[in-house]
Amino acid sequence: MAADVVIHSSNGIQQAPGNPARQPSQSVPRVALVTNIPAPYRVPVYNRIVADGRIDLIVIFCAEREPDRHWDYQEMAFNHVVLRESYFTWDGRYVHNNFDVLEQLKSIDPAVVITTGFNPTHLYAFAYAWWHGCKHIASTDGTLVSERNYTIVHKWLRRFIFKRSGAFIGASDGSFELFRSYGIENDRLFKAHLCVDNERFRDARSQAKSCDLMFCGRLTAVKQPLFAIDVAERAAALLGRRVSLLFVGSGELEPQLRARAARAAGVDIDIRGFATQTELPGLYGSARIFLFPTLWDPWGVVANEACAAGLPVISTPFAGAVGEIIQDGVNAFVRASDPGEWAAAVQRLLIDDDLYQEYSRNSLRLVAGHNYNAAAAGVIDACLASLARAA
Description:
This protein has 391 residues and is an alpha/beta fold. The chain contains twelve helices and 15 strands. The protein has helices spanning 43-52, 101-108, 120-132, 152-163, 173-181, 225-239, 254-262, 280-285, 301-308, 339-351, 353-367, 372-390; strands at residues 30-35, 56-61, 79-82, 87-90, 93-96, 112-115, 135-140, 167-170, 189-191, 211-216, 243-248, 267-271, 287-292, 313-315, 332-334. β13 (287-292), α9 (301-308) and β14 (313-315) form a beta-alpha-beta unit. α6 packs across α10 (339-351). The longest helix is centred in the last third of the chain and has 19 residues, at 372-390.
């Protein structure tokens, strides 16, 4: 279950549960980070930033949850605020519009404001920083690929904000490429990977395998869960045996997925639904190969989970993790959405144990550097560099 939420009050920032009250010295800059909702891959990063002690972090969440996110996460050991819920949907996404972020920022009085997107709430926070002379840091998970269809207005807005930002935090090399396309110099770029607790998946690496293939993610059109069944059917035909496929996740396509699974030829399909963070390592450990047929993912944290469990990956080119922890010919097959090509990749991995073991080892190696401590260091370094630049 999610941790209790601590609400900011007019009397000051309330301490997170279990976090002893401490008064930061005047030499420790206060940093307000404005983001959408608590996420399991970011809450541990914020916890480590607080433990480090070089910045006094307060996280402002636009909402406690979004309707299509059923995440659970660690207890929040950092000071945080949840704004009055206010959002609308646009093109299947939740757009947060919390005007009360201005009131919260005024009370916090930060030296640095970090925004993690371009929702109206983030724009209000940027405007506060600009008006009050705070340092602003732009943070994104996006890439040139994920933003390739953005309008002139979207791009103009980014150019306006980036010109007035002191530092930039990106989740990937693709994020750095995006920033550079706006003329941002390398010495102003800092990386805070999207990551998981790799050690939680250690036991999964030696677990007995009960299924051939695994899909994990929201059951929506952009994730292509139905495509995974097409691949499994083709793979069963190539291998001349039944193939097992595990689905983990929930979403609007679940009824269609179950109907398609009922008539799948040569495939044993297990649809588990939503899984908690505690359950995930065991589920990944039960699989041999991870299927990641996304049509759009700025990164794809499920790839971190799969690699941490030692799984070879088959992916489309449309995940930001491709080229970093997903590398074609190293630990993965990166292919277009052609079920025949994917089935051939499945066949190779399941019949060539030497290749399988090589890809498995490489998955572990590639994901090792993507960890919470490194991500926390990226955020801290960006804040301190931004302040030093102004000094």
